[in-house]
Amino acid sequence: PVLRAMENTDWKVQLGLWINKDDAVYEKDRDELIRLAGVFDYKKHVTAVIVGNEAIYREEQTTAQVAAKVKDVKQALAKLGLESIPVTVSETWPSYDKTLIDAVDYVNMHVFPFWEGISIDNAQRKAFEHIHDLQKLAGNKRVVVGETGWPDAGGNFDAAVPSLKNEQRYLREFICRAQLEKINYVWFSAFDEAWKPTTNASNVETHWGVIKGDKTPKFKSPMYDCTGFKPSSSTSDDSSSEESSDDLSSDNNSSEIDSLDNDIDESSNENDESSESDESTSSDAQSHIGGNMMVTTAASVVAFAAAALF
């Protein structure tokens, strides 16, 4: 449906193949990828093929197994004359080793300081520490942040506190630094996802969106402003209460919000001019927000509808 809807547009997609313990699932998706290449103009619309989403993190596949599937997809595309389309995976930053990096065309890493139990004061520093470490490991290959974000509600996870203030603070600090360092990224996520389970350790899975489930924005436009931003270079451990260099306020003691800044509007019904229309924000689509930012509404889909990163 996504590819069909895009036929007469300039939109781009990243096509994803699902991987789990059952290789028959991957093979079915790979065969469908090949079949659709005969129906749609991949050269016009497809910016990348992503082989699996956190299969290594879930311990359903090894890096060697996923790397072999990446090579398999590359060979299939080459036979169709589509070798120019880059192939990668979606994986957490610790999942990448030399075997996987050698196989992919670019590194597509997930980084979530929240799930490391990092306080908001140190979240930006920790995220970019992981990015820089992986850039060193990747050598000449480009590193893209395939997922990052912060929840606005739910239970604390160690020192990580979900709140609207902290979500907007992490959004601003991450995006402004990514722009300075010219790092492409996908923001997780566009919408709160009520369908997700709420039984995990901190009960936050339904609260990662920048737009509420009823399609009203959580923040007034603009969502962030990089004026005066300076990257944090702190090397303190996370037990420190040190503020980041641009001295943004945060919620570090409670997941409840005592007071909101003027640029956060929890009950606003106005449309965010930077978001896409309803027709282009389906549950398996990514919406272009601005600059080199994309926001995703699903971590595992067969077709990622997105503005071009490339």
TrEMBL record:
<keyword id="KW-0325">Glycoprotein</keyword>
<dbReference type="GO" id="GO:0005886">
    <property type="term" value="C:plasma membrane"/>
</dbReference>
<feature type="compositionally biased region" description="Acidic residues">
    <location>
        <begin position="258"/>
        <end position="281"/>
    </location>
</feature>
<keyword id="KW-0134">Cell wall</keyword>
<dbReference type="GO" id="GO:0005576">
    <property type="term" value="C:extracellular region"/>
</dbReference>
<keyword id="KW-0378">Hydrolase</keyword>
<dbReference type="GO" id="GO:0071555">
    <property type="term" value="P:cell wall organization"/>
</dbReference>
<keyword id="KW-0961">Cell wall biogenesis/degradation</keyword>
<comment type="function">
    <text>Glucanases play a role in cell expansion during growth, in cell-cell fusion during mating, and in spore release during sporulation. This enzyme may be involved in beta-glucan degradation. Active on laminarin and lichenan.</text>
</comment>
<keyword id="KW-0326">Glycosidase</keyword>
<protein>
    <recommendedName>
        <fullName>glucan endo-1,3-beta-D-glucosidase</fullName>
        <ecNumber>3.2.1.39</ecNumber>
    </recommendedName>
</protein>
<keyword id="KW-0472">Membrane</keyword>
<keyword id="KW-0624">Polysaccharide degradation</keyword>
<keyword id="KW-0732">Signal</keyword>
<dbReference type="GO" id="GO:0009986">
    <property type="term" value="C:cell surface"/>
</dbReference>
<feature type="compositionally biased region" description="Acidic residues">
    <location>
        <begin position="239"/>
        <end position="249"/>
    </location>
</feature>
<dbReference type="GO" id="GO:0000272">
    <property type="term" value="P:polysaccharide catabolic process"/>
</dbReference>
<dbReference type="Pfam" id="PF00332">
    <property type="entry name" value="Glyco_hydro_17"/>
</dbReference>
<keyword id="KW-0964">Secreted</keyword>
<keyword id="KW-1003">Cell membrane</keyword>
<dbReference type="GO" id="GO:0009277">
    <property type="term" value="C:fungal-type cell wall"/>
</dbReference>
<dbReference type="InterPro" id="IPR050732">
    <property type="entry name" value="Beta-glucan_modifiers"/>
</dbReference>
<dbReference type="InterPro" id="IPR000490">
    <property type="entry name" value="Glyco_hydro_17"/>
</dbReference>
<feature type="region of interest" description="Disordered">
    <location>
        <begin position="230"/>
        <end position="289"/>
    </location>
</feature>
<keyword id="KW-0119">Carbohydrate metabolism</keyword>
<dbReference type="GO" id="GO:0042973">
    <property type="term" value="F:glucan endo-1,3-beta-D-glucosidase activity"/>
</dbReference>
<dbReference type="InterPro" id="IPR017853">
    <property type="entry name" value="GH"/>
</dbReference>
<comment type="similarity">
    <text>Belongs to the glycosyl hydrolase 17 family.</text>
</comment>
